[in-house]
Amino acid sequence: MTDQTYFRKGFGLKGQVADVLSQDYHSRLVEEIRANDYTYSNGPVTFRLAHEFGFCYGVDRAVEYAYQADTKFPDKRVFLIGEIIHNPHVNQKLETLGIEFLLPDQEGAFDFSGITKDDVVIIPAFGVTVKDMATLHDIGCVLVDTTCGSVLNVWKRVEKYARDGFTALIHGKYFHEESKATASQVTRYPDGHYIIVRDMAETETVCNFIEAGSDPKSLETQFANAISPGFDASKHLLRVGIANQTTMLANESLAIAARVRESMARRYGDQHLADHFRSFDTICSATQERQDAVIDLMKEPLDMMIVIGGYNSSNTNHLAKLCAKSRTTYHISDASCIDIENRSVRHKPVGTDNEVTQADWLNVDSLTIGITAGASTPNNKIGEAMERVMRTMGVEPNVQS
């Protein structure tokens, strides 16, 4: 790709898009609470905001580059592969700019047949697979690559595993865009392979096979959607390197790495461990910081937690999971989930896939509410949710979002 068709560092238009970005995503209320030691009180309600929340650097960069691309190429068709991030509000804003979304089919594949060399294609923060990148390169269109730097670090590690003959064992969701893109990095090498485990339970299945080595077909069938083509458990679980989808629970990723290491040590002995097991810290610092901030916030005397972010956002779901361990937790997609008139809330309970409606969720005279938001949630959505909570409790915000 030439310098004229591939861009990873924006177009020098930060100043030109700053005002519209502020208008679309800024919140005076969130800035007020941040400046006041992350605490805001108004009548019967007190909010405690996690010290790390909302847009991370990678998301902020991806959104800004999308706005810059739209500004840079006013006379070209601009396409986005999938979603820039997992937040419906942000994606809707991009649609209003005129950016066209290329959505995957039921198998998760993208159709680039309508793209020409005269078009602009934005690669989302999750990245795209090696195959899709090659297809876009062959088309010759302008590529605006917003792939997060933390994701790129994981890719480098997975590629090195494949180069050295280690299978990448990835903690993630096999259907997630980032995990697909990460797993595809092994295809750069003829005998590169991967297996994706979603949680510790699936890891135990893999570890049991590593230690016992029985019935490879059963394991391959169970992980049919989460292994590389031609995967042979008897051959490709002899040498394993650990990686992870950056938005997974950090502590779980570390526990999975420790569990696989333990199995390899049992199978081959500590003295041969380096020949069979590798693990490097590929945990995203922003994901870790938001999870650590929630854990710290749980030490406060809170009556409940509100977690704001897209229901298909992995990092938001994991924040809700952490909160729900010790507090009543409401995961809402945005402020529209809070019905002031009926005093109800639509939310997605932790561990489920569907929204439910709960009446009288703020049915006490005084509340201290913890607030956090996923890395793809803009500040204005956080501020709007806080405003609706206050109005439900009968007070008017003294700082408008």
Folded structure, characterized:
This protein is of the alpha/beta class. The chain has three domains: 14-56 and 286-392, 3-Layer(aba) Sandwich (Cobalt-precorrin-4 Transmethylase, domain 1), CATH 3.40.1010.20; 57-148, Rossmann fold; 150-283, Cobalt-precorrin-4 Transmethylase, domain 1, CATH 3.40.1010.20. The protein contains 14 helices and 17 strands. It has helices spanning 14-25, 28-35, 57-72, 88-96, 130-139, 149-163, 177-184, 200-212, 216-222, 233-236, 250-268, 285-297, 314-324, 379-392; strands at 6-7, 39-42, 45-49, 78-81, 100-102, 120-123, 142-145, 167-171, 194-197, 240-244, 277-279, 304-308, 329-332, 338-339, 344-347, 356-359, 367-373. The chain has a five-stranded parallel β-sheet, covered by helices on one side. A five-stranded mixed β-sheet has the order 2-3-17-12-13, sandwiched between helices. Helix 1 (14-25) packs across helix 3, helix 6 (149-163) packs parallel to helix 7 (177-184) and helix 12 packs parallel to helix 13 (314-324). The protein is globular and about 65 Å long. The model has no long low-confidence stretch (mean pLDDT 94).
